Amino acid sequence: MLGMGGFFHPCNLAAVPGVVLMNAPATRSSASLTQAHLRLTARSRVETATPESLAADFRAELADVLAHVLLVARHHDMNLEAEVERKWLCWTSSE
Fold first, then answer.
1. If we measure between CA atoms, which residue out of 75, 39, 77 comes closest to residue 58?
2. Residue 77: which region, alpha, beta or left (left: phi > 0; alpha: psi -120 to 50)?
């Protein structure tokens, strides 16, 4: 059940009954996404990374954060699509 470093592997996280999903790995994923974005947009040290590797890192970190969001929504039995429509797409509804 535990992955590298003693943390839950993302593929197994949702299978743990009663697990608190907004845990340290989720927080680290958010921080990693921020760092990848800063590196991709040349607002952080890049060292020897190529533009392709920076873009790949950003995509991977974004996928991690999205997966955590989906796990939290599922844990709380939330209709995420409806909430996005209510909060972000309200301007598209015809009144």
1. 39
2. left
Amino acid at 73: A
Q: What is the tens place of the pLDDT at every residue in 3-14?
A: 444 444 555 554
User: pTM (2 decimals)?
Assistant: 0.68
Tens of pLDDT, residue by residue over 30-72, are: 999 999 999 999 998 888 899 999 999 999 999 999 999 999 8
Terminal alpha carbon distance of the chain: 50
Under a CB-based contact definition with an 8 Å cutoff, are residues 52 and 58 in contact? no
Tokens of 27: 């927080």
Contact by Cβ (8 Å): 11, 70: no
